[in-house]
Amino acid sequence: MVPRSSVHFAGRGAAEKAREHAARAEELRRELARVEREQRNWEAGAEGERLVAEALAVLEADGWTILHDVHWPGRQRANVDHVAIGPGGIVVVDSKNWTGAVSFRDDELRVGSRSMARELTGVAAATSAVTTHVPARHRSDVLGVLCLVQQPVPAREVGAVTVVGRNTVTDLLRALPTVLGPREVARVVDVLARELTEPPLDEALSTAAVPAPRAAARRPVPVRSRPRGPVRRRRRAVLEALLRAVLAVVALLVVVVVLALLSAP
User: Fold this and answer.
1) I need a surface site. Which of 153, 198, 246, 263 has the fewest CB within 10 A?
2) Residue 99 lies in a domain
3) What is the pLDDT of residues 228-245, one digit of tens each?
4) Number of folded domains in the chain?
5) Which of 101, 118, 210, 212 is nearest to 165 (CA)?
6) Distance CA 209, CA 41 (A)
7) Residue 136 lies inside a defined structural domain of this protein
């Protein structure tokens, strides 16, 4: 016979298991919500990049070449959305398919109440990384642009980056002063296509998901290469001096020989 006092123990083990499973189910629901949110963000990002690519495509008739989804130099798992090369220079474009009202306050970009300083720094960092592969003479012609897919804002400089809406991004590039001729454009395209389109070793991430350095310059300071011109001039001067010395010696020997012949009986 089971004592009445033990009745309250009935089902305790099953109830404990039910609580454990309920906690696990809640954890899985939160994880599922997070994954679905990330999925929506990736889908929105992909759609934004496609829309900006379509907008930039019209520039090809004006002598521009657009590279899409290229490798971010120096970062194995990151990419750069678009790089446009044309008469106006080299433009690194990062697409942002954000929702919400955009505002500018004291040289700061905000979406809703959130500051986008980190995202702007990421665009500047990507621009600097691409600049390292641009021929030295054209490194001052590189511009970083953050293109807002949904917000039709006019072009505005925010720190090191120009912010512009997708509806006017082509106007921005067309308005840039001409700094590259057709041959120079072809040369830069060849260099960047070779350097930036090599497949990364791992899965590429969007620039929005990659931590960025704290600061970057809009017009990055060109990496100074060894000055070859002065070195070549010095070498040429040394060779010319040696040649003159050799000619002087030969002339002296000729004079000596002639004098010797003339003085011979």
Assistant:
1) 263
2) yes
3) 444 455 566 656 666 676
4) 1
5) 101
6) 11
7) yes
